[in-house]
Amino acid sequence: MHAQSLARASDMCFQVVVLDSNLTHSARRLVMFPAHAVAPDASTTFNGRVFSYYRILRRWDDANITCKALGANLATVRDTSELSQLWSLALQKDAWVGGHTKGSLPPTNKTNWEWVGSPGQAVATNLWGQWEPSGDGLCGHLSNFSNHNGSLNDQPCQSSFAYICETLAPT
Asked: Is the dihedral of CA 29, 30, 32, 35 positive or negative?
């Protein structure tokens, strides 16, 4: 009976050890993935990249690790047309993207924002919601708050949201 329980558990989940020099907590991190989390809930190809939406709720750093384990990055939003595409992909719901304050991950600096998949590339000011980033968080997400309507908002990294990963589109 115990062996059957283990077999069923292994059918439902798999484990990945991610070695990432950006992790401040430890050099290794074990991430458990439900089997259904491997397949995105929705995806779209836009501007030469594939954006995949996962509705399972994760903290920002766990979403980032999950994307990396899948060979992707949390999404980089380059302009307002991409922002609109991703907002539609996320069904107009809150979702993590790769914006974070510069520094170690998890982010610790509240003044300068960049994309985790494109270090050094600043987050454009026209992508933020009104009065954002406000300093209440260190990680960026597409926001469903009343005055944001899919624009970026800074949010505490410990919050749990769906997330969007990106990879290059196959050629």
From this structure: positive
Burial (CB < 10 A; 0-12, 13-18, 19+), residue 165, is: buried
- Give the span between the Cα atoms of 94 and 92, in whole angstroms: 7
Q: Cα(40)–Cα(27) distance, rounded to whole angstroms?
A: 27
User: pLDDT tens digit string along 145-159?
Assistant: 767 788 999 999 999
pTM: 0.78
For residues 83 and 151, what is the distance between their CA atoms, to the nearest angstrom?
7
How far CA 133 is from CA of 22, 27, 36, 96, 156, in Å, comes to 23, 30, 33, 15, 12
Strands (E) located in 27-157: 28-34, 42-46, 49-58, 73-74, 95-101, 113-115, 118-122, 139-142, 152-155
Q: What is the CA radius of gyration of the chain?
A: 16
The closest of 89, 93, 97 to 53, measured between CA atoms, is: 89
